[in-house]
Design brief:
Layout: H1 3-16, H2 25-35, H3 42-53, H4 59-80, E1 90-91, E2 94-95, H5 97-101, H6 103-124, H7 132-143, H8 149-155, H9 163-185, H10 194-214, H11 217-220, H12 226-230, H13 235-239, H14 241-257, H15 265-278, H16 282-288
Antiparallel strand pairs: 1-2
Helix pairs in contact: 1-4, 2-6, 3-4, 3-9, 4-6, 4-9, 6-7, 7-9, 8-9, 9-10, 10-14, 14-15
């Protein structure tokens, strides 16, 4: 079974737990709306790639860990789109959760997806319970404060924002969790994999900032120019356009070089370099060559 099929199957199974008899139908529908149809699934694919490179020995746990990361990501998007934050009306080419289901249900859907992430990991670790504590700890660190997605969202309310801290929490937290949890799920020493996730998280944020400048809302499936409109820090403002492209290249190479020794290191390095460059908008690809 290919990785994308495994990811979608695991997410479908996880979200189905929110749609059981006796639960609020609107909440279940909102959670499904937030997760499907799929986006790029970059973070769970990364978790799978690391698990494979480490010699995956528990596919069901890898599936659960990867699904949990994506559930956290989807929760962060629901909250990020709310009127109190970005006030976005489109995500992945369709109306956002609060537009369809209302703001109260959207808040609860985001909260429920965070909890569901932890439930999903717990269910996936039934056959290898000795790995659960590390996975839960990593997931909690990625979700909360001072280094998780809650902190990343909160930085936007501060008067002074440190770009590195902001990006590390807002974006890097889930990327580092993906690499660490992928290794944990495979029973591998996981901490050496954190640097890979942190570097890829920053690379993704730089690429996202570039797309926000050169792409259209139709291409991205969401509004553009949000950072500029809301006065938030971004790579273009910090480095300039060409500087941001150089930064993306530097981060991609550093990420590939950070891969710990493992039997799948060579293939993973090639995968990381190609996938990172794919994030760059086509309009800028020639300038990055």
């Amino acid at each position: 079974m290919d990785v994308m099929t495994r990811i979608e199957r695991a997410l479908t199974k996880a979200v189905a737990h929110a749609d059981q008899q006796g639960g609020p139908p609107l909440l279940a529908a909102a959670m499904h709306h937030a997760v499907f149809p799929r986006g790029a699934r970059i973070r769970p694919r990364l978790a799978h790639a690391v698990a494979a490179a480490c010699g995956e020995d528990s596919p069901s746990l890898t599936d659960a860990a990867a699904a949990a990361i994506e559930l956290l990501h989807c929760a962060s998007l629901v909250h990020d789109d709310l009127p109190c934050f970005d006030n976005s009306d489109m995500r992945r080419g369709k109306p956002t959760v609060h537009i369809v289901y209302g703001e109260p249900i959207a808040v609860l859907a985001g909260d429920a997806l965070i909890v569901l992430a932890f439930e999903t990991v717990a269910r996936g670790a039934l056959r290898v319970p000795h790995r659960l504590a590390s996975l839960i700890h990593t997931l909690g660190r990625a979700a909360g404060s001072p280094l998780g997605i809650a902190a990343g969202q909160a930085w936007e309310s501060e008067d002074k924002i440190d770009l590195a801290h902001y990006q590390q929490a807002k974006t890097g937290a889930l990327f580092s969790a993906a690499t660490v949890m992928g290794a944990h799920a495979a029973g591998h020493d996981a901490e050496p994999w954190r640097a890979l996730g942190e570097l890829l998280g920053e690379a993704y944020q730089v690429a996202d900032d570039l797309r926000d400048v050169v792409c259209t809302p139709e291409e991205l499936g969401k509004p553009i120019g949000q950072d500029e409109a809301l006065g938030r820090p971004n790579a273009i403002r910090t480095y300039g356009l060409d500087g941001a492209i150089d930064r993306l290249n530097t981060l991609a190479r550093a990420a590939a070089d950070s891969i710990p020794v493992c039997r799948g290191a060579r293939d993973l390095k090639s995968h990381i370099l190609s996938e990172t460059m794919r994030l760059l908008p086509k309009e800028l690809a020639a300038r990055a060559a």
